[in-house]
Model the fold of this input.
Amino acid sequence: MNELIKSISKKEWIFLALVIAGVILITAVPYLYGYFTAPPGTVYSGLHYLTPGDTNVFMSMIEQAKQGRITFLNLYTSEPQHEILTNPLWLTVGWLGKIFKMSNLLTLHVARSIWAAIFIFVIFLLLAYLFKDPQKRKWFLVFIIFASGLGVFFNPILFDVNNLYEHPTDTWVVESVTFLTLYHSPHLIASLTLLVLTFLLMLLAFEKDQIRYSLGAGIATFFLLWFHPFNGPTVYAVLGVYLLFIFWKNKKIIWSHVKHYLILCALPVPIVLYLFLTAQADWVTRQWEKQNILPSPSVWMYLIGYGLLLPLVVVGLWITFKKVNNKGIFIISWLLCSSLLIYVPVSFQRRMSEGLHVPIAILAGLGFLYLIKRINDKSKNNNIYIYGLIIGALVFLPLTNIQILGQDIWLYANKKTLPYYLTKTEIEAMNWLKQNVGRQQIIFSSYYMGNFIPAYTGRIVWIGHGPQTIDLLEKYEINDWFWQSDLEVQAKNDLLINNNIDYVYYGRKEKEKGDYNPATKKYLQEVYTNPDVQIYKLL
Done:
């Protein structure tokens, strides 16, 4: 590892620092715009177009950690649950916010920026291991971080509000494109970082036959599976297939490689058992896992999502096969396994697209540099064609990423209300809940506000998030019925009692949903009020 780090020149370190600074700044632009253009009397919520419902879930875990909790509750469902689930990623992020007294949203983005810097450093180490040429390393890093597909062109044609999955992946599957991962959340960046680090350490273990590297890879995988177990199949499939190819190439089993692979398999066993026993012990956790269904879109959406990279990948594969070595075999193994895993019949298919963009970008980079070399060798006006090819790549490859950033800026500029902005009175009401509602007490609200309340209070709601609210569809219908009219008074009282509801949140979204008037109900007592929100306690 020391030799690897020393192989990176001073110019490369400067380049790496500039890339890190650029990525942090670029990905922060929409969020900063949203924050600084908040209308008077409102607060920027931090939600954005990509998986908006999840941002509040992240902040709810940050809030729980800031309140001193080591184990986490699913705050988005009211069923009794055991407090036995912990998450090292969100625990450390919450501690970061607590130590530096930052808001949950600021904590989220500081952690996102820190992990983005760590990822770029780690992926550059992998590139330094795979390629000696500094120019290749730089180009491949740019491809990995900034390249997208053709979704910017095809999504307006293919977009169907009734078919959420059949859209080009570079417009919505945050795991499938590195830039979207860096823009989205620290937990995805951290998981991708540990995935890459595991691969790097295992390649060093195989090459140097030193146990410290496979031990390091096993520890990295231990923490990876602890907070993001979806990456497990990728880790073991890629390295397993890589070993099979190596054994086939050498026409023998290399037992030292098997030893290191077994170490990698053994070290994460305790955390796998912990996760399994946690799910067995807690019904809510099991139901949450069952509801967290993440199917992959059709193969055409992935092809569009990687767009112009794919023809370059074909060229890159041709170059790699021409002179096959162990490093090339690893890249091919990664591409092959990740491409197949996204359609393995499991509930979290889409999650396994994480990391696929890396070998695609590397092979596309190889193809791109090969085309430049061919132009340089064959054409008299080579400079014109080379500059044209470079400019074309720099303009077209990141276009969907640019569209994603611009889309959020447009939303913040034109949608000056929920979900992008909360009123200060709503924040005040949630602060009251945080100070006055017990940790095990349950708050009833609309689904919409139920998504926000845990993020700002660390308290439980009856409904508020797709996978995490148990029996969501049934609860959604009941919730609509509750707010729709001021009739069936006794039935609504029974609903609150039977679901162990302690407080009713009554704000603008609840008022918009119907004519229900909690002020006239004898079973409710108003305990908080401001111009926009009233909170009632169930008597």
Summary: The mean pLDDT is 95. The chain has two domains: 37-94+417-539, 138-409. Residues 138-409 form one domain.
